[in-house]
Amino acid sequence: MNRLSSAARRAVFAPLDTEARVEAVARRLGDAIVLGLLVDGEQLPGESDLAGQLGVATVTLRESLMALRQQGLVATRRGRGGGTFVRAPADTLNERLTQRLLAHTVEELRDLADHYAAVAGGIARLAAERADSPDLDAPRRSLQDFADAQDPTARARIDGRLHVELAAAAQSARLTREEIRLQTEIGPLLSLPFADDEAHGTADRQHRQLLDAIGAADPARARGVAEEHIHGGVRRLIELRLKGARAS
Amino acid sequence: MSETRSQEVVDRAVTDAVAQVSDMLETVFAAVEEIRGRSQELVARIGGRGRGPVSADLAGLRPLLRARLARDRGLVSGAGFVAAPGLLTDVPAWLEWWQTHADGSVRPMLLDLDPRTSAYSDYTHWDWYALPRDTGERSVSGPYVDYLCSDEYSLTLAAPVLVNGVFAGVAAADVYLRHFEDAVGPALRRIEGAAFLVNPRGRVAASNSATQLAGSLVRDPVAAAARGELRLHPCGAIPLSLVTRPVTGP
Hints:
CATH class of the largest domain in chain A: Mainly Alpha
Number of domains of chain A: 2
CATH superfamily of the largest domain in chain B: PAS domain
Strand content of chain B: 25-35%
Radius of gyration of chain B: 20 Å
Strand order of the largest sheet of chain B: 3-2-1-6-5-4
Helix content of chain B: 25-40%
Largest sheet of chain A: 2 strands, antiparallel
Order of helices and strands of chain A: HHHHEEHHHHHHH
Low-confidence stretches of chain B: none
CATH class of the largest domain in chain B: Alpha Beta
Strand order of the largest sheet of chain A: 1-2
Oligomer: heterodimer
Mean pLDDT of chain A: 86
């Protein structure tokens, strides 16, 4: 049968859960604040504009903002010159990221690592089959930028860009979108381990091995290095998570 | 059918297909040329008033961009002018870029071009920018995954905008690969045997064969043609070639 069963069809076309949307919007804006994409003191667009841009109802946005106020990530001032403002003093960045990490269970992080490694491994394999040398110009530049980066946030941002560029070199729009989606989930947290120079050095070595394997058109080796790279990165996060859990 | 007759039929289908690819992309280039002309005129006019252009001035392009996206719906999904960094006096960089969305609406693309917050703020190394800047000629980029503007597998047609002989940016239009396939697929399928379009680097843009799909790479097609392993048919002045297998004797 080609047609989906009627129950499956109803599930496909059912409206998205409102509660999930509140959470999704709060997470998106919260991650942007934690990562520093939205900076301390910045005023968010008006509620109806922002709701329109995000494609959610105004009530949904309001509930998301309420959740962010509770987390101390935004503050709302009433009256003239009022509005919603980002609260993200730079000296509390590490603390906010750690809070964010502690909100994940170890099991969630392990599952995320499995998913991410499957995607990154698939990307590496296809890139090794399909990329030509000019396709690797952008990732090679990012590799060098990553090696030179000192600040953990910059390291995480450039690491993210390198992996998006490899997904594009794999010629897959879907895998590129999935890579970007996974980064919005875990990307900000990856700057925690990148504060450690040894972790930064390991990631740099793996990037070089990965680009070597892709450049040598060796799909199996590329996939193996990419999977190890993701699992290694998330293992460091899990170690931090376990330490944080004991301390609290 | 004799070998000569069958070769003639193949040749006619090939001629039709390359003509169709050329006609279709020349239509898109005609839109790019209009955007190029209007951008050049706008920037030159403002310079004539003795001040530098600002991002708000580029709003003057919007009626044209909206009209072209409406006319070429289903073929052109994004169009605009990409300013050379430093051209505008109020912002370091700018894309006046409009896109047709899945719901049919035409909206501007809002991109974070602040290097302090975005890892993607420098667009000057993308082929659609670098090729017209470096060659001074119009260009076809892709197919490539456009993770900057649309997240779609795309072709981008672009032309350099020169104001008083100085490079000021590029005018460009995006064709999503699925729309390109819709447009050229039937002509490719009328060719007997495997036939596919490749860009100058050998990347397949559309194909009639499951063995050589869009996105795959034919390494060094010119050398392969010289060895007689495949035949390359140019698509007029468009930098894509149709690849067919040579018809072998009985």
